[in-house]
Amino acid sequence: MIVVDNLHKHFGGFHAVDGASLEIEKGSITGLIGPNGAGKTTLFNVIAGVLEPTSGRVTMDGEDITGLPPHELFGKGLLRTFQIAHEFHSMTCRENLMMVPAGQSGESLWNTWFGRKRIADEERALRAKADEVLEFLTISHLADEKAGNLSGGQKKLLELGRTMMVDAKIVFLDEVGAGVNRTLLMTIGDAILQLNKERGYTFVVIEHDMDFIGKICGPVICMAEGKVLAEGSLAEIKANEQVIEAYLGTGLKNKDKVGA
């Protein structure tokens, strides 16, 4: 579905992404792991159009999307979330969700005068869909709560809900576990699995929690120093000598030997 070919992103002399190549299969939940500074978030930003690449190519379903701005990629069904949730603080959870779909009739000055019925019908439909999403995510009790009052985990659930308000094809999730308690993290994981199985969402997930990666991800990609270091199942990644040295640490290797 997504093919990244020899992608580079340089900031002056610093090569944040340094010739990364990888493929994301349609219908997969792919984990992206690696040490801090490995280039994972920068890679997300380039694929999602937040940053322009220095060189290289990104295709989606065979179409070259390299350097397209986020709003165009949004229209193609490519969405991303951020390590720090980007909610509208002063709006309710329901209103945050209702804001997502583009091209709403109420955005037109003409329609505010002559298309009021259409606007009202759309708002009723959006409200119903938002309530359905909140129910799916088990946070319907927060529908009228200001988003700024939510916990870190609840904000991550709300961000996931925003992807459900449009026809998302692939969603890039940046550290969904950051600042989230264990119970809510498992709720997020269950929602991701359900969206993948029932609605066909493809996910790419940056996360440091290996238990969470093991719970939801099939293929796992490990990056280090801007490059793809290894790809495979989580078991294969954990057994990879280069990955152990660069990211997981010698402690895991020694622990496995003791347990053998």
UniProtKB/TrEMBL annotation:
One Gene Ontology MF term: ATP hydrolysis activity
Tagged with keyword Transport: yes
Keyword annotations from UniProtKB, A to Z: ATP-binding, Nucleotide-binding, Transport
ABC transporter domain boundaries: 2-250
GO annotation, cellular component aspect: plasma membrane
Domain of life of the organism encoding this protein: Bacteria
Matches recorded under PANTHER family: CONSERVED COMPONENT OF ABC TRANSPORTER FOR NATURAL AMINO ACIDS, CONSERVED COMPONENT OF ABC TRANSPORTER FOR NATURAL AMINO ACIDS-RELATED
Protein name (database record): ABC transporter ATP-binding protein
Organism listed in the record: Marivivens niveibacter
